[in-house]
Specification:
With about 130 residues, this protein is mostly beta strands. Helix content is about 0%, strand content about 35%. The strands form three sheets. A five-stranded antiparallel β-sheet has the order 1-2-9-4-7, with no helix packed on it. It has a three-stranded antiparallel β-sheet with strand order 6-5-8, with no helix packed on it. A two-stranded antiparallel sheet has the order 3-10. It is globular, with a radius of gyration of 15 Å. The chain has no helices and ten strands. Strand 5 and strand 6 (about 85) form a beta hairpin.
């Protein structure tokens, strides 16, 4: 008989705020070793409050895929933040490894929230000084 690992369901009240953070946002781990979930991937949520933006950061060797649940967002990216992408509910976002970026919430009334999956089990967040971009 083949032995299978159990399916794990992680409810919002179990999400872990102890994951790597970037100023201006809140990440909550749902699929992570800290929650005793054995996976080759990391999964969780990401939220930015109305009128806020994150600091400039990248995720090292990790690739990131996000799905926009609620709210609109702008993602500035590039060596000097010279590019911008816009995402809305229902959109998927792919952030390549090592790409400097920041998320911006243009709304003054609604937070935006994503479901995020990263390509390794431990999140990598490298916060960069804001002086990197004009």
């Amino acid at each position: 008989m083949t032995k299978f690992e159990a399916i794990r369901v992680v409810s919002p009240e179990q999400f872990d705020l102890g994951t790597a953070q970037t100023p201006g946002s809140e990440r909550r781990a749902a699929i992570a070793p800290e929650l005793s979930v054995n996976s080759a991937l990391w999964g969780g949520t990401f939220e930015v409050e109305p009128g806020s933006r994150t600091g400039i950061h990248h995720h090292g060797s990790q690739e990131t895929i996000a799905y926009v649940l609620i709210g609109n967002c702008d993602i500035r990216w590039g060596a000097k933040g010279e590019f911008i992408a816009h995402a809305k509910p229902g959109d998927f976002i792919h952030v390549p490894a090592f790409l400097p970026h920041m998320e911006i919430n243009p709304s003054k009334v609604q937070a935006f929230r994503w479901v995020v999956v990263r390509s390794t089990p431990k999140p990598i967040v490298v916060n960069l000084p804001d002086v990197v971009w004009p």
